[in-house]
C-alpha cells in the first residue's frame, strides 16, 4: 500500500441511529499530521479501489461512547474543521492560527465577521478544502458551508454538545453521559481539526473533544468503510497465504530499531506526498515504488 498502512486488526462495528457502521484504523496514534489525513485516505482509495472516508463526527461520537470500540481507537481526526477566537474577541475578516515552527492556518469568516464567542465549523471535508504551501494552510471553505456554534465556552470543561456539529457549547455542566469534555486554546485563536479519542484527559474516558492541535501534531487515521468495501478490507487483513510468503523478501537492517525504521518510513511517505506536483513525477516513481513495498512490511 502506498502512503498508508492498516493498523487495525479488524473492521470495527458501531451502531449509529439503529444502523451498523464499519470502522477501520489506518494509521496509529501520533503517526499523521492533521492536514495529511484526507490525502492519505484518498491515496489509499486510489491504490485499493475503495471508497473509505474519514470518520464523521456523528459516527465518531457513537464509537467513543461504545467502550469496546473506543479503547481500540487512537486519538484521531474527524471530517470537521473548527475556527474560533480568544474568549471575548470579535471575529475579524480572517481567523489565523500560528504556533512557532508551524505554518499559519487561515479561515475567512465571510458574513460572520463581528460575531463573538462563537465557533465556525465545517463538516464533510476533503483535501480539496485545504490549500497548502510551506508557510500556510488556507481553509478554502465558503461561509455558506460554515456552521455557527453559539455560546462557545472560553475554557476547558464539561459541556453539552452542539446538536449539528458535536462541539461542546453553552454553560458548564458536571461530568455526565450526555456531556463532552472540551479542550481548547485560551490565549490565541485557533483554526484546525476536530479530534476525538482521548482516554485520560481529566478522567473523561472517550468523551473528550480536542480543538487545539497544531499542524505538526501527530494523530491517528480512522475511516468509515462502506458495506461494499468490507470484503476488500477483510482480504487485506487476512494472513498471507503460503504462495504469497514464497514471494516475500527477508532483509536485515543492522544498527536501527524496528520502531525507528517504522518512523522513518512514515516520515518518508509524508515527504513524498508533499513533493507531488512540485518535483517531476518520474523522479518520484522509484521512491514511491520502494515505499509501496515497504508499506507491506511488518515493522
Folded structure, characterized:
This protein has helices spanning 37-48, 57-64, 67-70, 230-237, 242-245, 258-275, 281-294; strands at residues 12-16, 19-32, 53-54, 76-84, 94-97, 104-108, 119-123, 130-132, 136-139, 147-149, 157-161, 168-169, 180-184, 190-196, 208-211, 219-225. It has 299 residues and is an alpha+beta fold. Among the domains are: 78-201, no CATH class; 241-299, no CATH class. The strands form three sheets. The protein has an eight-stranded mixed β-sheet. Strand 5 (94-97) and strand 6 (104-108) form a beta hairpin. Helix 6 (258-275) runs antiparallel to helix 7. The model is unreliable at 240-245 (pLDDT under 50).
Task: Indicate the multimeric state.
Answer: single chain
Overall pLDDT score: 86
Helix/strand/pairing category: alpha+beta
End-to-end gap: 14 Å
Broad shape: globular
Q: Which strand order do you get reading across the main beta sheet?
A: 10-7-4-14-15-13-11-12
Secondary structure layout:
Blueprint: E1 12-16, E2 19-32, H1 37-48, E3 53-54, H2 57-64, H3 67-70, E4 76-84, E5 94-97, E6 104-108, E7 119-123, E8 130-132, E9 136-139, E10 147-149, E11 157-161, E12 168-169, E13 180-184, E14 190-196, E15 208-211, E16 219-225, H4 230-237, H5 242-245, H6 258-275, H7 281-294
Brief sketch in words of this structure:
The chain is of the alpha+beta class. Helix content is 23%, strand content 28%.
